[in-house]
Amino acid sequence: MSRLTMMVSRRPDLTMRLRNVEADDRKSIAETSAEIIQKIFTTCLTDRTSARYSKPEGKKIGVYMFANLVLKLLFACRRTQLAKQIFTNISSNSPPLSLYPAAQRVTFLFYLGRFNLSNSHY
Fold first, then answer.
1. Cα 38 from chain centroid?
2. What SS3 class is residue 100?
3. First and final CA of the chain: distance in angstroms?
4. Are 25 and 71 in contact (CB under 8 A)?
5. Rg for the chain (alpha carbons), in Å?
6. What is the domain range of residue 62?
7. What's the burial of 30, exposed, middle or buried (CB within 10 Å: 0-12/13-18/19+)?
8. Residue 115 is inside which H or E element, if any?
9. Number of CB atoms found within 10 A of residue 25's CB
10. Domain count along the chain
11. Which long-range contacts (CB under 8 A, 24 or more apart) does 55-61 make?
């Protein structure tokens, strides 16, 4: 879904018709997709099948995968201030980052670094 959203948002000829039909204050396709995936992320994060500091099981396995998708879309549509909620939720409810695959850890830390840099948190 995120790949399709990114492709469509990069093609103004495909989104021009949507902009003409709707008002100018309409959310972008990337932002709407980010909201949908964020609901999935929240569902994964609030799953109670495993303890907080144990190996992630059940829906908790997808926490960082969906967080990374949401962050990718938010940064693509330049709505980085909405990413603060993702980082806050993860820091308070998620199992430790070290329990997840390296690819998910690197991607998450990349977006965390971009967020901190854009908000002057050196």
1. 6
2. coil
3. 33
4. no
5. 16
6. 2-118
7. buried
8. helix 102-118
9. 5
10. 1
11. 55/95, 55/99, 56/95, 56/99, 56/100, 60/94, 60/95
Model pLDDT for residues 16-46, shown as the tens digit of each residue: 665 555 555 667 778 888 899 999 999 998 9
Cβ partners under 8 Å of residue 74, min gap 6: 30, 31, 34, 80, 82, 83, 86
Quick one: tokens of 84? 């603060």
Best CA proximity match to 15, nearest among 33, 35, 41: 33
Residues in the chain, overall count: 122
Neighbouring CB atoms inside 10 A of 37's CB total 23
Which distant-in-sequence residues (6+ apart) come within 8 Å of 27 by Cβ? 35
pLDDT in tens, 55-98: 888 898 999 999 999 999 999 888 888 899 999 999 988 888 99
**What tokens were used for 60?**
């908790």
Instruction: Name the token pair of 48.
Output: 């109670």
Q: What is the mean pLDDT of the chain?
A: 84
Dist. CA 56–CA 48, nearest whole Å: 10
Report the SS3 class of residue 62. helix
